[in-house]
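May I ask for a single protein's sequence together with how it folds?
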Amino acid sequence: MKYILKYTFSLCLVLCSFLVTAQKTTVKDTIAIKKDSIKPKTERYGLRLGVDLFKLTRSFYDKNYKGLELVGDFKFTRKHYLAAEIGNENKTVADDQLNFTTKGTYLKVGFDYNSYENWLGMNNMLYVGMRYGVSSFSQTLNSYSIYYANNYFPKPTIVSGTEYDGLSAQWIEVIAGVKAEVFPNLYVGFSFGIHNLISNKVPNNFDNLYIPGFNRTYGGNFGAGFNYTISYFVPLYKTVLKTKMKEKGKK
């Protein structure tokens, strides 16, 4: 009987040791599984395409204007975007002494820097940027009137119809704007830009008073522009964010 109790007690000790070891192994495995099940933090990169609503809607209510501008940007770092705009404009300017029509296409390329700190998965923007713009267009002088210092005499209107083809202009543009996500992957935004002409092919006996993509020149090399856009973000790939571990300072 004494030997049976001894063997039974020894067997219980062995079983208990197995149970403790198994429990430790299970806990370690559970912790490892939980660690493996935690998804790494990722950030989306892709292409955002849209249209300038300001130019699009203006074509409906302004009989002297027709235009369309497509916009796009590509996120290549967390803060930097490649950006471009391409468009077409047909505008008639009717002043007191001058009536002319400008039509042509333009392209603007550059970059944007986003100063807004986004949460993960968001691509909102509070940005500044630069563009290089180039435009190819033509001007048609519809009519003009001769200026007289004495207003007692009527101003005769001279119908011209002279067309100037093969015109071009280049400029540098500094812009600032905002883009915000209103629905998943759908963004609205606006921007304001200041332009400076660096090249301007002017026709004989006339001037480029309006340049597609640049707007009015106001008799100088400076101009300004505004757009209001709606765009859609197309995710192309994701990158895993590296977690920065804080090292304890050694005293």
Helices lie at 2-37, 53-61. The CA atoms of residues 197 and 220 lie 9 Å apart. The chain is about 20% helix and 55% strand.
